[in-house]
Design a protein that fits this description.
59% helix; alpha+beta; elongated; two-stranded antiparallel sheet; 2 helices; 64 residues
């Protein structure tokens, strides 16, 4: 459990560094944004896909 928490913490620190550097996490080109009138619908398809891959790799490395 401790190794998982350390890995999760490192992942969060990495995401924070990317955000500070100006990488637009959450607004990637594969994400769908629908604007109609005064409302906006945001569907983060590519963002969820990348997060899933990153977490899968993290779990695979920590299980070894």
């Amino acid at each position: 459990m401790g190794r998982f928490l350390i890995g999760l913490g490192l992942l969060l620190v990495g995401a924070g560094v990317l955000i500070q550097l100006g990488v637009p996490l959450g607004r990637l080109p594969g994400d769908i944004v629908i604007r109609r009138g005064g409302s906006t619908i945001y569907i983060p398809v590519l963002t969820c896909l990348l997060a899933s891959v990153a977490l899968s790799l993290l779990v695979a490395v920590l299980r070894r």
